[in-house]
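Q: Predict the assembly, please.
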Amino acid sequence: MAGLSIKDARKHFGTTEVLKGVSIDVADGEFTVIVGPSGCGKSTLLRSVAGLEELTNGRIRIGDRDVTGLAPSERGIAMVFQSYALYPHLTVYENMAFALRIAKADKVAIDAAVRRAAAILNIEPLLDRKPAALSGGQRQRVAIGRAIVRQPQIFLFDEPLSNLDADLRVRMRYEFAELHRQLGTTTLYVTHDQVEAMTLADRIIVMRDGRIEQVGTPRELYARPANIFVAQFLGTPRMNILAATMAENGRATLAGGRSIALPSLTTPQPAGTPLSIGIRPEDIAIGEAPGALPFTISFIERLGGLATLHLGGREGEEPVACQLRDDGSLEEGDTVAASFASGHLHLFDSTGEVLETTGK
Amino acid sequence: MSLRRWSVTLLAALVALVTIAPLIWMVSVSLMARGEAAQFPPPLWPTSPTLENYRLLFGSFGVGRFLLNSILISTLATGLALLFTIPAGYAFAKLRFKGRDATFRLLVAALVVPGQIGMLPLFLELKAMGLVNSYAGALVPWLAGIFGIFLVRQYCLSIPDEMLEAARIDGASEGQILRRIVLPVLAPIIVTLALYVFLSSWNDFMWPLIILADQDLYTLPVALAAHSRQNVQDYEIMMAGAVVTTLPVLILFLALQRYYLSELLTGSVKG
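A: Predicted assembly structure:
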């Protein structure tokens, strides 16, 4: 096993710069998830680590080796692709043994490695089958098995669950976590699904437009997002963002003219400064309380145990989503009082960067 | 069975009959006695079937030599065409190199030029190379047909890049990827292409006629044409010659039609 270090990775495709100076350090044994919207450069970064793309600039180290110019097979990595990329004419056994056979490994050693990996993934009964005779989940397991057999220093996963249905995704997520606990291999995992990122990662790297927006543990990123993009990317329903201006006495005025109390800022801002106020849907409290504001329920999404209320405020204010336990007492058209506790508020400046508050 | 299905079956049977009738009559005439087919109206079946025409064909006419020439040239043409066409088609589809798409467009544009137009310059080139009147000269046009390259390239495009990348990560060289991953996946198209080249080179008349001067080097179609000019009245022998020419490729086609047809169907599903 080994850690991974990427320094100032840049990649151009023609005149388009896909990676704009990305630097990452992944500790030995860490499960790191790169998450971001389509086209943010996360897959290009992963493919560069694998050696499938050549960086325009920058260095990649795996353990104590600089692997920047090495062929994929010499980097000590194994990769699992979104489409599984199994060899269709070979059996599961042959698929898993392929790399070792190419390396002209001893037959007994190959057999032991394949059977060990098959045992870990519970695919021993499938070894004689061809990929066409397997279900999506089984194919994904074989793809992982093929990676395990190589005993890599780093596992690379490129959206491995995207082709599976919702149920299987949940199960495979659990299996990935279990597998990582069992093997302890350093893992770099790319996904656009924030739920996968939150549930699997030791650390999350959020990317946008070829740059890293924020790096941290899932809890850190959720509780202290560095900017509006990260704040809204993680969490479902996403964080509410309300346009406001700073007022006197530690308060802000919303676009509709109503006033709410803010947490105290580390660097106080003068009155009249435009800012954005973020609050997660589950942090809004419904019910009469000092400072609560009246809202009208425009739409209710009932999810069984939970309900998401879509609240309309005054003219000029953005609609607000609020999530709460559904007791069936609220109806569309009702007027409710909603409290925005200052301790739950996230403040962002006019460029979308977070304004540090005391007590966080 | 509904009336509609009956009529479709009947129509298909009729079309099959019309198609196969000349072939059956060809075999029938080849078994007739000399002069029997020249009667009017021509008989459908031989009154007393005989193999005399085949004996003459392989005896005094020496068709065995031409049959061997045809087998040799068609087999070599098929082997060489596959050897050059498959890597070329694969490279045009999956490898990144400068000028790839421009070169491919140029090749495809050349498809619209009739083959006959290239025959004279090709002949002059081969003459300069000293390959006229040789098996090598007869083989040259088959080395890397553009249609074959196009066919392989189009099929290769359906191979996922990720599969090849997985093989690269697994440590396979480009040659190993072609041999161990791509070729097995290409099996249906290889059979199709091999059949196409074999049939085309087997039936080819014009190029062997131009390039081969020595009678010993003649292929079956050229030899039969030369023979028919001398023995234009010998329908029975001519038909025996036609059977000898047609039968091997017919058997080959029937033996491989399972793969050939499956490929055609795959192509239609994939669009």
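Residues 264-271 of chain B have pLDDT under 50 and may be disordered. Residues 235-270 of chain B form the longest helix (36 residues).
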